[in-house]
Design goal:
Number of helices: 16
Helix content: 25-40%
Strand order of the largest sheet: 7-8-6-9-10-11
Radius of gyration: 23 Å
CATH superfamily of the largest domain: Mur-like, catalytic domain
CATH architecture of the largest domain: 3-Layer(aba) Sandwich
Distance between the termini: 31 Å
Length: about 475
């Protein structure tokens, strides 16, 4: 694939990102594996741009994304590293949110050269004609967005919604740039927006009509350098009252509550709190955190004027998202759960709190120097057998052993890899128990992402139990 443009087509005004991209050379920094980069490339092609894709990862690890782009004379791929020569002819840089711009020498060189830059999300928001409900938070963003989508679609299909169509995208893994031509002013857009995406939102004059913060607690502090900077990035979602009519907020850890109220400003009535306590619902998704997600969805639905009966029915039918305490199956009386999305000790604790039976826990992943002490206490209360795996598995097992010496009945094992961990879990689990795979750490010690990690766990469970395997690991 080769993206070439006439030599005399170079843009002369490089002071800000261009609105009309036809005939320009656009450099996409970070193709990624979750859809945003692919969506941006496809859309940029349709705008008539010449696209170069630069990514640190090689073609093999990005195979699915490369195949999704397809073959085009307007696209060329420079994978396996960033080449500053690509900056020479670029008119615009589109930066993947996974790029840590403070630490990226390639990005800093682009800034030094005065190259205008933007993001996939900002390209969409600048052009979106429909009102947007934007969802962020520390935990529960994706599930809340997917649950809200189910409720809004149910109301629309019943002819009981004040909008025509619902479009869902953002950090949930779906770029809406290719859908722009289909979105109208009478539709509604639901965006999941991560803290990394929110860092760059102030670069454009845009705010959602409804801002949703599921919850706030310390997270991603290595990227932001502290809790306040992390929270302030989240609060970029909230515009002035004339732009953001409602701010829906769940529990907020101090001192973020004060920062939130300052951002809401002189019209406190637009701040709508998610009620504490569990709504009277029979959910298919387990756990207190999912009951909190449901309460958030019910709150948003009331603001939108959706019929409560249709919303409740849709929320109760919601099956959950893959890799988030996903029920893989019941074999020999043992329930198997895939929670590969768990990439921090806090997420592991949430998964454990959702279990209502004795647990055989498989945990561990990339070593990030986490403090496992709080997690170890929760494991001591809820886990009968702990199987540590991955780089961080031994450290977690050691933390648990150090803190629960009095709990002699807890069995701790170390597994060299995930297949060995699943075999151990199968041999040790008893009928009436649950095998929970909740790593509590990133996947990059052994897998390209949490999706590949979770898919491997599912295949291992099914193959161990004699179920026909499906997917890349079969």
């Amino acid at each position: 694939m080769e993206a070439r443009r006439p030599a005399d087509a170079r843009r002369s005004d490089r002071s800000s990102p261009p609105r009309d991209l036809h005939g320009l050379s656009v450099l996409v920094m970070g193709l990624g594996r979750f859809g945003g980069g692919v969506g941006a490339v496809r859309w940029l092609q349709r705008q008539g741009a010449f696209v170069t894709v630069s990514d640190q990862a090689d073609a093999e690890s990005l195979r699915a994304s490369v195949e999704a782009i397809g073959d085009s004379e307007r696209v060329r791929l420079h994978l396996g590293g960033h080449d500053p020569a690509d900056l020479e002819e670029a008119d615009l840089l589109v930066v993947n949110p996974a790029v840590d711009k403070r630490r990226s020498a390639f990005f800093q060189e682009a800034v030094r050269r005065g190259l205008p830059w933007t993001t996939e999300l900002n390209l969409f928001c600048e052009r979106c004609p429909a009102p947007v409900i934007a969802v962020t938070g520390t935990y529960g963003k994706s599930t809340t967005v997917a649950m809200l989508e189910s409720a809004m679609r149910a109301a629309a299909e019943a002819g009981q919604a004040p909008f025509e169509q619902v479009f869902v995208g953002g950090n949930i893994g779906r770029s809406l740039l290719p859908e722009l031509d289909r979105i109208g002013a009478n539709d509604r857009v639901v965006l999941e927006i991560s803290n990394a995406q929110l860092e760059d939102l102030p670069r454009i004059d845009w705010f959602p009509e409804t801002a949703v913060i599921t919850n706030l607690s310390p997270h991603h502090l290595d990227r932001h350098g502290g809790y306040e900077a992390y929270v302030q990035a989240k609060l970029n979602l909230i515009g002035p009252p004339s732009r953001t009519r409602f701010v829906v907020a769940g529990p907020v850890a101090p001192p973020a509550e004060e920062w939130l109220r300052r951002r809401v400003g002189g019209e406190p009535d637009r701040l709508v709190r998610v009620p504490e306590g569990s709504p009277p619902l029979r959910l298919r998704t387990p756990g207190r955190h999912n009951r909190a997600n449901a309460a958030c969805v019910l709150t948003i639905a009331r603001i939108l004027g959706l019929p409560e009966s249709a919303v409740r029915e849709a929320v109760e039918r919601f099956p959950g998202l893959p890799h988030r305490i996903e029920h893989v199956g019941t074999f020999d009386g043992v329930d198997y759960y895939n929670d590969s999305k768990s990439t921090s000790p806090e997420a592991l604790i949430v998964a454990l709190e959702a279990m209502e039976k004795p647990v055989v826990l498989i945990a561990g992943g990339l070593e990030k120097g986490f403090d496992w002490s709080g997690c170890a206490e929760e494991i001591a209360r809820r886990v009968r057998v702990l199987i540590g795996t991955g780089q961080s598995g031994p450290a977690l097992v050691e933390a648990v052993r150090a803190g629960v010496e009095q709990r002699k009945q807890m069995e701790c094992r170390i597994a060299g890899d995930l297949p060995e961990a699943v075999r151990l879990a199968r041999s040790l689990a008893q009928a009436g128990e649950a095998v929970l795979y909740s790593p509590g750490a990133p996947s990059f010690d052994a897998y390209p992402n949490f999706v590949a990690r979770g898919e491997h766990f599912i295949e291992l469970v099914r193959s161990e139990r004699g179920v026909e395997p499906r997917g890349r690991f079969s």
